[in-house]
Amino acid sequence: MTCGEVQRTKSASRRVKSRQTLVFALLCSILLIAQADLAGQALSNSQFPSDSEIHQILMQRVDALHQSVGIVVGVIEPNGRRVIAHGTLDKGDNRVVDGNTRLLQTSS
Known about the structure:
The chain has helices spanning 3-45, 51-64, and strands spanning 70-77, 80-90, 93-96. Strand 1 (70-77) and strand 2 (80-90) form a beta hairpin. The model has no long low-confidence stretch (mean pLDDT 75). It is of the alpha+beta class and 108 residues long. Strands 1-2-3 form a three-stranded antiparallel sheet.
């Protein structure tokens, strides 16, 4: 085999590897897009707890478990926003918390 033939063989081998890499990358991209689409469908079909279910959780955490004196929950859904609250602003302060209460701690 001459030097020219070796060079052509190496060049052809690189082109094949390059095409294989490109095909592999395209397949991975298609799989990722399909997975993201399925995940998006699952999220859009999921249901958040109702206001009464959230309020029951808040009552348990505030009144029974004493984890806080007041909790405000905001829910953002594709069809709108909801605010559910339970409790007071502070110990000894009878002002109730609501969607306009300034919070000292936030969580997600």
